[in-house]
Amino acid sequence: MEAAQNCVSDNCCACWTEGCGCDGCLGVVADGLETVNPCMEYVADVIWCFGSPLAFPFVFCFNDGPETNPPGGGWQLPMIQTPLRVPIKCCFYTACAPCGQWWMRKQLLGGDMSKYKLWQGYHDGPKCFATRCPGAPITIESGTYGESKCPNAFLAAEVCCLGCAWSVCCSFDVNRRMIKEQRNLRNDPLENRVNNCVGFFSSLASKLCLCGLCTHCASCCVGLCAPDSSGAQECSGEGGRAARACLSCSRTCWRGIWSVKIIAIGCMSSQMDFEMKEGQPLVSAPTKINMDRGNTDDDAEDPWWADPKKQ
Questions:
Q1: How far is CA 124 from CA 8, 127, 160, 174, in A?
Q2: What is the CA radius of gyration of the chain?
Q3: What is the mean pLDDT of the chain?
Q4: Is the peptide bond before 263 cis (omega within 30 degrees of 0)?
Q5: Which of 50, 243, 251, 291 could be disulfide-bonded to 216 (CB atoms 3.0-4.6 Å)?
Q6: pTM, full prediction
Q7: How far is 237 from 214, CA to CA, in rounded Å?
């Protein structure tokens, strides 16, 4: 901090470092922030409930998505009923999500771990910098990492750490997509609500975080560039206070998203477990068979049942 101030003092004119004409303007900005900040901090304190499991009921404020055919996505057990119908499994899949997803994948593969490959190929392709620069890390190619030699260890790593903080969510997403494809199922209405809720608050948290970071950087720059200006220093302090309030709201939203996701994973995993035991895979559509009546003559007389007059 001291080195930056010395650099500014050595390279910037006294007119800028002392504020001069900008001092009043910065003072007005500081007064405005001083008025807004208490409200922002109050909001950050009030929405603490969003950062806990109490946030889950807010999913019912969102649309349940388009109607599906069959109704309810075809699931034998609606997601909203899982806490009452299978409470023990719901608690297990929620409290021990990595173990639950490991067990679920094994069940979906029919116990045959020779079929396992990393994320079952659903997340193959370029990730991170590789999406912008072909050839850059990381590009995922399932089946090329020797999964067949030790599938159980690879699956354990997949659900625990290979996706970083989102490992469990990535593994669950693969399991959910697998059972939908195997049994021709659609989204449960409550699943659509959860997805819409998570999408909304993710976007809100990202914008709050960006706003907080930009405000914090701007306030630091003002404070460093005009160290002798009372208006600039006041503006810098109030800007930092506003930035902290924005970041606090953002952190609360992210905690709420995690709470909603974990509870939803528990309910949907219980629904999938019930489906594998009680539900039946949908049969394929019947094949159309052309019956040969043994008469290829177009001018042949129609049989008696084809003409009511002959009956």
A1: 49, 9, 18, 12
A2: 31
A3: 82
A4: no
A5: 243
A6: 0.79
A7: 14
